[in-house]
């Protein structure tokens, strides 16, 4: 991974507008016409993505599709629950600190399977999560997020989709805080105004993306 020359990228507001417009095209079924072989040739020797997206592995939430992006437009990191581990943080530091991406989006979604599983485990008192193997690394952070959701007093399992989606949104906010807390490089870039970070939720039922405040 060599150092990528920095180029002028759109402002964060311009990127948000572009993402939401791409999502509108996706929902309307009128995706932008692209010459993909030409995009491959144009990015064959270098890349200058203007953004990095942290998302979930869910098969319904591919960022390049839901935002109608082309080749070379975004770095894409996907882990169950839209979370970050050390390797993901290192990848983000490369994307934003070396390659110069100036916008970082954490994209959660409704009906998240990882969140549903964590909700059921939390509702069961944790007993169901004792023999999960490596999946425990996915569930444990979400269990912490569930503990912060205090508005729902009953129906705190996967059958309550409103609760699941509230936890998923809180988990996006948690991931943003984790990125800033665990990466001094990214936090410095944010403080210097060289990087903007934001969260969003994708609705798997409607295909719509909602930016979080």
Molecular structure report:
This protein has about 210 residues and is of the alpha/beta class. The chain has a domain of about 140 residues: Carbonic anhydrase (Beta-carbonic Anhydrase, Chain A, 3-Layer(aba) Sandwich), CATH 3.40.1050.10. The chain has 8 helices and 5 strands; from the N terminus they run H-H-E-H-E-H-E-H-H-H-H-E-E. A 5-stranded mixed beta sheet has the order 2-1-3-4-5, sandwiched between helices. Strand 4 and strand 5 form a beta hairpin. Helix 6 packs across helix 7. The model has no long low-confidence stretch (mean pLDDT about 95).
Q: Could you report the average pLDDT, rounded to the nearest whole number?
A: 94
* Helix and strand run: HHEHEHEHHHHEE
Question: How are the strands of the largest sheet arranged?
Answer: 2-1-3-4-5
The name of the CATH superfamily of the domain at 12-112 and 168-211 reads Carbonic anhydrase
Number of strands: 5
**CATH topology of the domain at 12-112 and 168-211, anyone?**
Beta-carbonic Anhydrase, Chain A
Low-confidence stretches: none
Distance between the ends:
34 Å
Shape: globular
Task: Using the 3D structure, state the CATH architecture of the domain at 12-112 and 168-211.
Answer: 3-Layer(aba) Sandwich
Tell me about the biggest sheet? 5 strands, mixed
Number of helical stretches of at least 4 residues:
8
**Text of the CATH class of the domain at 12-112 and 168-211:** Alpha Beta
What integer value in Å does the Rg equal? 18 Å
Structural class: alpha/beta
What is the helix content?
A: 40-55%
Strand coverage percent: 5-15%
